[in-house]
Amino acid sequence: MNQHVKAAPTMAPDMAPDLSRRSFLVGTAATGLVLGYAGLADSALAATTPSAFEPSVWYSIAPDGLVTVTCGKADMGQHIASTMAQIVCEELGAAWKDMRVQLASNDPKFNDPVLGAQITGGSWSTMMNFDAMSRAGAAGRIALTEAAAASMGVPAKELTVRDGIVMHAKSKKQMSYAEIVKSGKITKSFTPDELKAITLKTPDQYTMIGVSVPQIDIPSKTNGTAKYGIDTMLPGMVYGKVVTPPVRFGATVTAVDDSEAKKVPGFIKAVVLDDKTGSTSGWVVAVASTFANARKAADALKISYDKGPYANVSTDSIITEAMRLQAQDDAGQFFVKDGDANAALAGAVKVLEAEYTTSINIHAPMEPMNATAEFKGDILHIYSGNQFA
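Request: output the structure for the sequence above.
Response:
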């Protein structure tokens, strides 16, 4: 990912998509049918110049019938890209074999107020995007069906869609999505009110959602074609290996002895990070010409620390403090509070209690934590696996 570092807005999980702020546009473009949310001011322009849909694309249908869904969330192994495709596919009526996915770039257009900022966390992605992506799929199906009805000379209400084929039972006529796109006759647009008025399927009508389907991105993740942050190679790169302090917060580096590190071939220098946020306090980075040598140099550094106010924090002390807080009525917050739990427990004939503890865990991705930074002029380009682009 090549990113121009830029702050992005955060979104609370209860912020429902505001479809009234945008209109959904459907039309033909040089590459096929393009669908997405675009500013209301663009509607008239889009009607005459379909290529204007491109800046707001969330999925597209090519003349060969392949549907490419752009996922604005980070795929961290939870297959959210395929999930977005599955949501679109349900209402669009396409065949799963024709679905493709791609991750959104860092273009600001993908920080969409309808679908939210490019952040993955808290299991928000499906919840925040389900309605909007469902309506996107449904709008595409309606536009394709109406175009097919005009081409076949039959009423649109008599048409059915299945696996990317629009069929008319009475006349036995049918058209594939590919044929409809090639016809160039898709010009329908939806106002925000029309988009919100679309009747979506009910769960009992689902044929794709709730069904186990092959995840679209598995082949690229297993055959080496998917590119990760750690795959970045730039001319003249040097490598750094972080040496973290013995405490999580508050440490200060008091001295660095690099005499042994200097004996490692390719060692360049040791850098003490001066992080004003305090989140990486006490970190030292060994820099060398190769990562292998950076690791050797990091191991050779002799670093002295002032461990700061948290020198005695341990797993046991954290668990003890957590239990103390749990015993306080005013500590913490409820995710769900339905009824009076204390009264129910007090009036219960029998109460069963159990306590479970587990070790503190960290995010441990299969891809080693990494980032590559390159200044080009006054722009810093970051290549990294990141759940908040």
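Residues 315-345 form one domain.
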